[in-house]
Amino acid sequence: MAHDTGSGAASGGPLFTWLARTVAVIGGATLAGLVLLVCAEVFMRAVLNDSLDVVEELAGYGVVLLTFFGASLALRRDALFRVEFLANTLPRKVLRTLTALFVCASIVACAILAWKCFGTVQSSFSRGKFAPTVLETPLWIPQLILPIGFALLVVFLVEKLLILARGPKETS
Fold this sequence. Notes:
Blueprint: E1 3-4, E2 10-11, H1 14-47, H2 55-76, H3 84-89, H4 92-127, H5 140-143, H6 145-166
Antiparallel strand pairs: 1-2
């Protein structure tokens, strides 16, 4: 039986629920940090006629993180990759089969992308590459967001497959 996470999403178990909450907290903290940075930048420019010079770079990294973390949470809540007209017209068994095939194909695609992106991270790390910006951020740090993001998608896709394998919810 699926665990209720309080968010309307079925859960594959407590580990998945904990991971989703962790992703949500990190995403929320990132969003709050970005809002504070942008507000500070606006204040600096408007009042002090100066700039923090790092907001654009950090905002870019934050947006990428928020995109992946948001996509993984949306996937978990069935709010991503859902075609309603198919879901409402196909027989339940056919829909479950198509969903399982889509999830399996998505797991393969995301796993390959995570692996290839991690290769880019390793290359940047071993070569000691830095961003040509004020912060001179080692490139492997922001690049790490991509394989982590794809890995999160894989984890929540596996959870979706486990939930599908359990079968329809029992009504009591």
